[in-house]
Write a structure and sequence with these properties.
The protein is mainly β. Helix content is 14%, strand content 59%. Strands 1, 2, 3, 4, 5, 6, 7 and 8 form an 8-stranded antiparallel beta sheet that branches. It is elongated and about 50 Å long.
Length: 114
Amino acid sequence: GLTIRVDALLKNPTRASFKIKYPFIEIIHKEVLVGSSDVINKDIKIPPFGQVLVQGMLVKIPVMSFFSVVYDMVKALVNKQAISLTVAVVTTIDLGWTQVAYENKKNIVLQKSK
C-alpha cells in the first residue's frame, strides 16, 4: 500500500485552553474510501493564545485501493483531467465542562500543473 503523512498546525486564538482527541482522517474519491488514518486515543492540549503542531498523522491507502482507485486518479492526472477528493477530519473537542464532536469535510481538486 501507500502511506501519506499529514502534519497540521492547530491554533487557539482564545484565552481558554482546551483539548482535542487525536484527529481521524479519511480520503474519499467519487464516494469511495481511498484511505484513512488509525484511530488513536490521545489528547492534544492547545494552550490559550497558542498553537500546537501535530506531526505524523498517517493516512494508509491499502493495496486494493491503490490498484483500483489510485490508478484511475493517476491516469486522469496524466490525461490532464482534474481529480476531486474529499478529505474528512473527525475529532472531539473537550472544553472541560462539555465535549463537542467536530467533523470537517473539504473538497480538494488536484490537477497536473501545466
